[in-house]
Amino acid sequence: MSSSTSQTIASLPANTLITAPTVPQPVAGTSDVVGLVWQNNQNTTLPGQYVTMGQVFKAGDVPAGSQLVAIYQNQSGQTVTEPVQMDVKTTNADGSAAMTVLTMQQPTLAANSSTGVMLALAPAGTQPGAPVDLASSLANYNLSVALSVQNASGGTTNYAISPVAALQAALASGNPSYILHGPDATEMQVSVPVTGSMQMVFNVTAYADGTFKTNVQFDNNLATLDNAATQISGGTLTYNATISEGVTAVVTQNNITQAQYQNWNQVVYSGTTPQVNIVHDINYLEQTGAI
Question: How far, in Å, are 19, 40, 52, 78, 124 from residue 276 at the CA level?
């Protein structure tokens, strides 16, 4: 089990020239849209796994109803075409995809290597596969949070929080609201009140390979509606927090002092934490107006 961690970038000698990898460019007259690079900057091989990223497209490049594929060469030099899950968040004036969230299979990457990828339109009529069933996936989901909150009297109150019941209720509502919903990944967000103004917000993603990503948010900002005015009850909390996968503690933070309206989060993966660096086509992003 693993959790997300920060990395320290080693200092480089003065006047060191860093060259960015060359991003593949679309070939005119083909279904190519935009390129990117999967980059492994580590001294060890990165195993293949699902990765999720944001991508903005120019108006007209990805028409409404289109599907995408990722085209690249594997370590054996063979050209691979993989389907890409595209969750469209905003559209251009012509209805084409603008801001999207893409989920795809990152192949095994050799140590200190880069692999160019071309995002291209799938053949007309291509339909995505059945979405990952979050309801059935929850049978294998075992993340939980334990909080030990200090009381004004000097004692502590312990809370055990899991998002499973809230997720099951949302799925059973008849109109669940998905953040991602496709054959590679399904994601939902739920919140669980704890005490006072403290709530836990969980973004749970189930991947097709059976692994999970959870963004665990500690939000001290829960509001209640009273007489048409928002009334906050709670205030500053001091507590210890442990995030566990089953019986294994993967993140522990002690003596946290969290004021009203503050929040913090931790991303936890049930499998290997992705380490791939994704290099976007900056010129293309400039043309979209995103940067």
Answer: 18, 5, 11, 21, 31
Place of tokens 């998905």: 178
Tell whether the torsion through CA atoms of 38, 43, 48 and 53 is positive or negative.
Answer: negative
The 10 Å Cβ neighbour count of residue 258 is: 18
pTM of the model: 0.89
Q: What's phi and psi for 288, nearest 5 deg? A: -75, -20
What six digits make up the tokens of 35? 């390129």
Q: Residue 131: CB partners within 8 Å, gap ≥ 6?
A: 181, 182, 183, 186
Half-sphere exposure of 190 (CA within 13 A, CB side): 18
Residue matched to tokens 């334990």: 146
Question: What's the alpha-carbon Rg for the chain, to the nearest Å?
Answer: 22
Q: Residue 67 in contact with residue 144, Cβ under 8 Å? A: no
In tens digits, what is the pLDDT along the chain, a chain of 291 residues?
A: 444 434 444 555 666 655 668 999 999 999 999 999 999 999 999 999 999 999 999 999 999 999 999 999 988 899 999 999 999 999 999 999 999 999 999 999 999 999 999 999 999 999 999 999 999 999 999 999 999 999 988 899 999 999 999 999 999 998 899 999 999 999 999 999 999 999 999 999 999 999 999 999 999 998 654 544 555 568 899 999 999 999 999 999 999 999 989 999 999 999 889 999 999 999 999 999 998
Burial string for 109-146 (b: 16+ CB within 10 Å, else e) reads beeebbbbbbbbbbeeeeebeebbebeebbeebbbbbb
* Run of H or E residues at 288: helix 282-288
